[in-house]
Amino acid sequence: MTVIREEDVIESVADALQYISYYHPIDYITALGRAYALEESPAARDAIAQILTNSRMSAEGHRPICQDTGIVVAFVKVGMNVRWQATRTLAEMINEGVRRAYLHPDNKLRASIVADPAFTRVNTRDNTPAVVHVEMVPGDAVDITVAAKGGGSENKARFAMLNPSDSIRDWVVNTLPGMGAGWCPPGMLGIGIGGSAEKAMILAKEALMEPIDMAELKARGARTPIEELRIELHDAVNDLGIGAQGLGGLSTVLDVKILDTPTHAASKPIAMIPNCAATRHAHFTLTGAGPAYLPPPDLDAWPKVNWTPDKAAKPVNLDRLTPAEVASWQPGDRLLLSGCMLTGRDAAHKRMVDMLARGETLPVDFTNRVIYYVGPVDPVGDEVVGPAGPTTATRMDKFTETMLARTGLIAMIGKAERGPTGIEAIKRHKAAYLMAVGGAAYLVAKAIKKSRVVAFEDLGMEAIYEFEVKDMPVTVAVDSNGTSVHQTGPADWKARIAAAREKQQG
């Protein structure tokens, strides 16, 4: 009978979480490299190049791929013949592994978990607790799959109780555009079908742990109805033209994974959860022989892609920025930002808006300034700041009118699209929204030369920082007239893809 030691579980979980913070799965890198080679949209190709370059930098530097180092999810399969040498419960062992990984002094990861979610939302400071799913299975080993799921992609999860006769394809194709690009495509979709409501969601999440093999599946052909559905959904989603970062292009998803289970005759539960450009998961097995350590991947497997700024990119001096210059920017313009910017995201925005409502003076002056929606990783060694990629901009939409009307702010930087409320405020105040690439956090951090907290230090990673940057790459996503490239780009590429399909068939 196998004896599994408490310390072996803890050490293995901690090692795996550190590993996935800076190593993409090879299947994802291979698939993304293939998408890069085939991409025809210049904007999407540039975004994929940044993601691939960032991935290699993270692998070499052992620093997080994304500033959002995720909520930890563990799928644990415990053999029925296993005995435990432990004083902690299994969940407590997993959580201790999380704690060690996220507080590792050489690669400290961002703590994003908040307790009391309905009210005070206080950060637990060590990213615990994890979400743990346990299944008893035959055998004498313990199989553990750990994932670090970013909030941007997790927030785009969708669920429906379809009628038994409803089309799965139609639901997916009609639902996906409404998810926006905050999940950082190109990634993969996990779909769970059947069971009960909660079972479908768990199946969708578990499906994301499977390797990407769509190219191989298409090459050999589908052997089951589920495989046929995977191919159908993969092609139908890519035909939407959403593209990398929602800018329009050929690759929106790299794979679609489906798990199903029996369900009630009156029901067809379906869940869809996307994985983002920071796809992070790993599997290991404990057999009683000690901790499991994952071998480092061969960096030669990474595509030879080294992103450099577009030669047509316009330099912008943030310290001299004026509303007139902001108004001159056109949708899709590539900019290289230098100078000082402020940061702030959900908690900071809410606090500022509440202060303004009470007639209080803000602790920082936003006049003619740019704000970056970011919650960076803490620095290590001689770093100025840790990985510092953008967070989803739509969450700040409800604060945008107040910020633009009452603070002197003239531009914002974030990830993915803006919603109608945000765009209307941008248009009304002749401001602009700039998009940085989600999934390129370490690359972006290299442009940050100085960093200091200037307000709300108690908010941790959500405090207001001042960054001094040099040639930080962004794209004008919403101009001062309210034109959004996240609307025009996908519409253009959807039409192009449809025309190409029609030509092939005709």
Concise account of the structure shown:
The protein is α/β, with parallel strands linked by helices and 506 residues long. It is built from 15 helices and 19 strands.
Description:
By secondary structure, the protein is an alpha/beta fold. The chain contains 15 helices and 19 strands. It has 3 domains: 157 residues, no CATH class; 127 residues, no CATH class; 176 residues, fumarase (Alpha-Beta Barrel). A 5-stranded mixed barrel has the order 14-15-16-17-19. Strands 6-2-7-12 form a 4-stranded mixed sheet. The chain has a 4-stranded mixed sheet with strand order 8-11-9-10. α11 crosses α12.
Query: What Rg do the Cα atoms give?
Result: 23 Å
Shape: globular
What is the CATH C level class of the largest domain, in words? Alpha Beta
Spans of 5+ residues with little confidence (pLDDT < 50)?
none
CATH superfamily of the largest domain: Fe-S hydro-lyase, tartrate dehydratase beta-type, catalytic domain
Record the strand order, biggest sheet: 14-15-16-17-19
Helical content class: 25-40%
Q: Strand-residue fraction?
A: 15-25%
Averaged pLDDT: 97
Number of strands: 19
Distance between the termini: 65 Å
Name given to the CATH architecture of the largest domain = Alpha-Beta Barrel
Task: Give me the oligomer status.
Answer: single chain
